[in-house]
Design brief:
heterodimer, A: alpha/beta, 10-stranded mixed beta sheet, 22 strands, 23% helix, B: alpha/beta, Rossmann fold, 4-stranded antiparallel beta sheet, 28% strand
């Protein structure tokens, strides 16, 4: 335990030391494209440091406490000696997906291999694909995730080894959702770096479901970065289901770049987790793009969830919607910051943002910060934030019809999240998420699959 | 059935009810009338168990049981039903889920098996006809986007589903046109039986043309200042409340 280390600079230097001890090896082992920016990235990390309260972008989620543990780093791929099916089974038979596994940041091919994917689609380990098809990775890798803009992105870029890679060629529609299971399971407390890359060519379509899960009670710090390139007239749906234990901290940074006529829909569903920070940046880089960004978080005890969004309208006639809802119980805390930036040429922009939070106790805390930067003059932008409690009139109405108070509260909490849940387009997934939300609100540990390890932390 | 003795109620230190006495026997229809601010809705809310009211003295028993010992949901299951003056909209709670939960909570209390989805839909169809409730409305969330009249109909629809022992209609007639008023009254009358009682709270006598009361009470400044038969309602209609105010020193 490194509680003695409280000085920010010392902490950063500890991570520098971990970087130095692995860098030579990476030089030999990793494909050049993953290696080319490491030195710049680690310098950027040192320059910015681990975010404290003084860092405006992280002021509601200072990360130093989570960095001050002594973690193991998995600098190489560990053999996985279990069958994915033995550890958990997806209990949603209707949810027929192409299943992929990433463990502690490393992509693992499953024995049941040969994904049922249309011809031309490439999916697998980022490291392996960067080695086998460097031309597929080089033009994209690192072009959205800018180390100078965020110390966690910088740290990820310095440490990146592996993660998932998905390429969907022009005009191909991937019917089945691709479900990536991110598992954390190590013998010791572990720092996980994961780097993902998704390229969707013009006119193509893909659905991603990403499930985060911790399989044992060790402490985890996860820092992942995902870059998603959405070609002209392409459609990308990403649903991220976050279900980790209270000793896990995660910083997810997702970057989208959309070309004209494309549409993205993103759902961040936080069901459980000690500290979850979701960074999302969407660049609408062509006319007539649509970005729908939804999120919901259900937290209790001392959990903390922070959603930080940036939507950049760079071209005219685009639309973006942000709608995030939180239910906070006990002493949990939440933060939301949503920036809409309309650049000068982005006329006829429609950009909306809403953040609604329900506080179930006096000790729960929500911070919400909308930011609108509008440089064009013919735009429609709106934002609205509410922080409130259960509607006592509605509660009384339900009780006056014989419905038990606890049940009435549950109905109202479900109703609160319903508005966002119903935005999930695919029926089985929507029903499944709705069920998980209900379970979560009932206080059951909502597993997104039957986990063989019954860790209840 | 219902016995209210010397009930005094305050809200945030302000006395609203200043000693109500009322006996409602099985099968009776009581009308409680009175000018605005006389405490009519407070009485309805206290009977249903709404929080925020301070009972400073008095007692209420329902079928011999102390009402103050019971939560709102227990009162409901024992047969007290409040038709709200302003039914709340609850987006995200589907009508069908709400109604089925409510009906089955009542059944559970009576030791009956919960209705299956099919049985429930059948029951709902039957009761919907009674108040001419549009199916489109039961496919929505609770009261969501309902007009004033539709909300009131929905209250009577729920009453028909739950078949309460004691119904309290809090200004159910306000905001209703004459057709809706008739439908609501027909619904109430259809449920009438020797074992069921109704308290009709209203400002106007209009509703009492359709729901014939056995007793009419005038509530003024938190007290029942006059009780008589049906004729009192007509007298009030004719003379207005000024007469009551003058008699009671205002």
């Amino acid at each position: 335990m490194m509680n003695a280390i409280t000085d920010a600079a010392d902490l950063s230097l500890m991570y520098l030391a971990r970087y130095r001890e692995a860098a030579d090896r990476w030089m030999k082992e990793t494909p050049p494209v993953l290696h080319r920016n490491r030195e710049t990235a680690i310098r950027e990390f040192l320059r910015q440091g681990i975010p404290s309260k003084k860092n405006e972008n992280y002021k509601y989620s200072p990360l130093q406490p989570y960095f001050s543990w002594e973690y193991d780093f998995q600098h190489s791929r560990n053999h996985v000696d279990f069958q994915l099916n033995e550890v958990f089974q997806c209990d949603i038979p209707q949810l027929d997906t192409v299943l992929m596994l990433v463990m502690n940041g490393w992509f693992h091919s499953l024995n049941s291999e040969r994904y049922e994917l249309p011809p031309g689609v490439i999916a697998g380990s980022l490291e392996e694909i960067a080695a086998a098809h460097p031309g597929l990775v080089e033009p994209w890798y690192g072009s959205l995730a800018e180390p100078a803009e965020d110390p966690l992105v910088a740290l990820n870029s310095a440490f990146a080894r592996d993660g998932f890679f998905i390429y969907v060629p022009r005009g191909v529609r991937v019917e089945k959702p691709i479900q990536v299971i991110n598992l954390q399971e190590a013998e010791h407390d572990t720092f996980v770096t994961q780097r993902n890359l998704v390229i969707v060519d013009p006119g193509a379509e893909v659905n991603l479901i990403i499930c985060d899960h911790t399989l044992n009670a060790n402490r985890y710090m996860v820092n992942d970065v995902t870059e998603i390139f959405v070609g002209k007239n392409a459609r990308v749906d990403v649903c991220s289901v976050q279900n980790q234990h209270n000793r896990a901290a995660s910083v997810h940074s997702v970057f989208f770049r959309q070309e004209r006529d494309s549409r993205i829909t993103s759902h961040a569903v936080t069901l459980h987790g000690g500290m979850v920070r979701n960074n999302l940046k969407a660049l609408l880089n062509g006319e007539n793009c649509e970005a729908n960004l939804y999120g919901m978080a259900f937290i209790d005890r001392k959990q903390h969830v922070d959603n930080s969004l940036q939507v950049i309208h760079a071209f005219p006639n685009c639309q973006s919607n942000q709608h995030y809802k939180n239910v906070l119980d006990d002493e949990s805390s939440g933060a939301f910051s949503g920036r809409i930036h309309v650049l000068r040429d982005a006329q006829k922009t429609n950009a909306y943002q809403r953040n609604n939070s329900l506080l179930l106790t006096d000790k729960a805390l929500m911070q919400t910060k909308p930011q609108l930067i509008i440089e064009a003059d013919d735009v429609k932008c709106s934002h609205g934030a509410t922080v409130g409690q259960i509607d006592e009139d509605a509660l009384f109405y339900l009780r006056s019809r014989g419905i038990e108070e606890s049940r009435a509260r549950l109905m109202l909490m479900n109703a609160f999240s319903y508005e966002v849940v119903q935005q999930i387009a695919a029926d089985p997934l929507r029903d499944r998420i709705s069920e998980l939300v209900d379970k979560r609100l009932r206080g059951d540990v909502a597993r997104c699959h039957e986990c063989a390890y019954r860790c209840d932390c | 059935m219902l016995s209210i003795k010397n009930l005094c109620v305050s809200i945030e230190g302000k006395e609203i009810l200043t000693g109500i006495n009322l006996e409602v026997r099985p099968g009776e229809v009581h009308a409680i009338m009175g000018p605005n601010g006389s405490g009519k809705s407070t009485l309805a809310n206290v009977l249903a168990g709404r929080e925020g009211y301070e009972i400073t003295s008095g007692e209420i028993t329902f079928e011999g049981e102390d009402l103050f010992e019971l939560s709102p949901e227990e009162r409901a299951r024992k047969g007290i039903f409040l038709s709200f003056q302003y039914p709340v909209e609850i987006p995200g709670v589907p009508m069908v889920t709400f109604l089925k939960t409510s009906v089955n909570e009542h059944r559970k209390f009576k030791g009956e098996k919960p209705l299956t989805a099919g049985e429930f839909l059948k029951l709902m169809r039957e009761k919907k006809q009674m108040v001419e409730m549009d199916t489109e409305l039961t496919n929505r969330s609770v009261n969501e986007g309902f007009s004033g009249g539709e909300k009131k109909k929905n209250e009577i629809f729920q009453m028909a589903l739950l078949e309460p022992r004691l119904s309290i209609l809090d200004e159910t007639d306000s905001g209703l046109d004459i057709d809706a008023l008739k439908i609501v009254a027909n619904g109430v009358n259809a449920l009438k039986s020797p074992g069921r009682s109704t308290i009709v709270i209203t400002h106007y006598q209009r509703l009492l043309d359709y729901i014939i009361p056995d007793h009419v009470h005038v509530l003024y400044k938190g007290k029942i200042v006059k009780s008589a038969g049906r004729e009192l309602a007509l007298e009030l209609e004719e003379k207005g409340y000024e007469w009551i105010k003058q008699e009671n020193g205002n």
